Amino acid sequence: MHVFVTGGTGQTGPAIVTELIGSGHRVTGLARSDAAAERLDALGAGVVRGSLEDLDSLRAGATSADGVVHMAMATDFDDVEGMTRREVNAIRELGEALGETGRPLLTTSGTLVLRPGQVSSESDSSDPDSIGQLRIPGEQACLALATKGVRAIVVRLAPTVHGPRDHGFIPMLIAAARRTGVSAYVGDGSNRWPAVHRLDAANLYRLALERSPGGRVVHGVGEPAVAFRAIAEKIGEKLNLPVRSVDPEQAPAHFGNPFMAAVFGTDAPASSGETQRLLGWKPNNRTLLDDLEYGDYLDVEG
C-alpha cells in the first residue's frame, strides 16, 4: 500500500513511518521545511512539500495514495478556534481526495476527549466539556466521511505516548519538578492516566490501516490507568527531589499555567480492549514507569 502521512516528523510520526515501511508499505510524507523533508528522506519516505494550511498539497498527497494517516496538528493555543478550523478543513480535504474509493483515512485524537472519572471504552462518546474538547470537531469530521465512501477511522491516543525523545506531557512534568524543586501531584494523586509506548502506538496505526472497518474509533492505550502519584514519585526518585501534593489552587503556579494544571489533575483512565480484539493488537513495550526508570527522560536538563 502507498500511504500518505502527515506529521511524519513529529513525536510519534517517525515511528509510524518506520513501522509502515518495515511492513512493506511505501510512504510519502508531508513536509513544510527542508529539515522535515530531510528527516523523511532519512526514514526512507518520499516527500510532498506543503503544510496543513496548503489544501492543494494535502489533496495531491492523498489523491496519489492508497490510504492516509493524518497525525499533524498545527498547535496554536492562542487561537484555539482557528486551530480547530484548520484541522477540520484538512480532514475534509483529505476525505474529498479519498471519497467514494473505500480507501482508508486514519485521523488522530486523544482519550482526553472522553468524560473523566470512568474507565472509558472505544464505544464511549466524546464529551463536549472534556479537557480534550478541541479534538472533538476533528473526530466528527473524520467519522462523517464513513458515509461518503471513505474507510474513516479515528485513533484516540493516550495523553502520554512515551518513549525516546518524548516532548509531550511527561517532559513538561519533569521540567516543572526541576524548576520548582518538587515533584508534585494534584490533591491525593489518585487520578489515573492511560499510557502507551510509541512503538506500540505505531503498530496500532499500521494494524488499523490494514484491518479496521470504517466508521470506527480505536484506542491507543497500553496501560489503562497509571496513578498520577506513582508518576510523580518515580520522577522525584530519579531526580532526588521531594514529592508533594499541591491543591488545585496551587497547581497552576507549580505546573506553569491553568491548562497544564487541569491536565495533570484530571482522572482519565481508558481501555483498549475492543481495539485489541478488533485488530489483534498486543502492546508489549515498556510501561510508562519503566520508561521513567530506564529511558532517556532524565538524561538531559529540561
What is the residue-mean pLDDT, rounded to a whole number? 95
Q: How do the helices and strands follow one another from N- to C-terminus?
A: EHEHEHEHEHEEHEEHEEHEHHHH
The structural class is alpha/beta
Spatial order of strands in the largest sheet: 3-2-1-4-5-6-10
CATH topology annotation of the largest domain = Rossmann fold
Characterize the overall form.
globular
- Gyration radius, rounded: 19 Å
The CATH homologous superfamily of the largest domain: NAD(P)-binding Rossmann-like Domain
For the record, the count of structural domains works out to 2
The total strand number stands at: 12
CATH-defined architecture of the largest domain:
3-Layer(aba) Sandwich
Task: Describe the 3D structure.
With 302 residues, the chain is an alpha/beta fold. The protein folds into two domains: 2-159 and 195-222, NAD(P)-binding Rossmann-like Domain (Rossmann fold), CATH 3.40.50; 161-194 and 224-269 and 285-294, UDP-galactose 4-epimerase, domain 1, CATH 3.90.25. Helix content is 40%, strand content 20%. It has twelve helices and twelve strands. It has helices at residues 13-22, 34-43, 55-63, 80-98, 136-144, 169-180, 198-211, 228-239, 251-255, 258-265, 273-279, 288-294, and strands at residues 2-6, 26-31, 46-49, 67-70, 104-110, 151-157, 160-162, 183-186, 192-197, 216-220, 223-227, 243-246. It has a seven-stranded parallel β-sheet with strand order 3-2-1-4-5-6-10, with helices on both faces. It starts with a strand and ends in an 8-residue tail after the last helix. 49% of the residues are buried.
